[in-house]
Amino acid sequence: MTRNELLGIYRKLYASHGPQHWWPGDGPFEVMLGAVLTQNTAWSNVERAIDNLKAAGLMDLQALLQTAETQLAQHIRPAGYFNVKARRVLSLCRFLTAHANLAELNDHELRERLLAVHGIGPETADDILLYAFERPVFVIDAYTRRLFSRLGLVEPDAGYETLRRAFEQALGPDVPLYNEYHALIVRHAKEACRTKPICDACCLKILCDYSNLCFMQ
DNA sequence: TACCAGGAGAAAA
DNA sequence: TTTTCTCATGGT
Predict the structure, then answer these.
(1) Can you give the pTM of this predicted structure?
(2) What residues have CB less than 8 Å from A10, skipping those under 6 apart?
(3) Is the pLDDT of residue A29 over 90?
């Protein structure tokens, strides 16, 4: 997987969908909450949960820390897994309160600290690193894995860290590019094909555009 | 009705 | 160590 291959696909996605202006949230704290709430969940459901939090005056670190877990769970109910996510949100809040100097940590140190928080795995940590802390970390999600494996550029069962390093080594550190690229992959997956996420036809379209060989005709 | 969604942690094998 | 199970609402 080369830089030119990745940039070629990026340009096709950008030409097709335009700038995405991610993350769809206001400020780093809302980005971090959204990253937890969207785990295995459609963003439309997360928006309902975020609206509930704002209406209750809970889009605030200290306010959340003073809220009972069971009460928080009811506010974020539309996001699904609400009991699990309430515990994870409060774990994140306690972590943020206990570490006031996070912005001073280097990328690796900050990533390790985030991964040590209950409920924050690789993808959620990288969402937070890229979209809240603006660190050059490429986010790998199910869409990324599915799209690029169908394009034949990565192994479908490759590990998360293997894929992340492959993208980062090929592209080089570039926060604006990582930001837009991940957002475009999600946009493409959600909207390019309405029958099922990233169907073969969509992948073939990208592949055909990319290689100038049309297999669809 | 059944399946899926911008995962992660715990339990089981 | 690897695989499987659990968590749950809302849209299609």
Answers:
(1) 0.95
(2) A177, A180, A181, A184
(3) yes
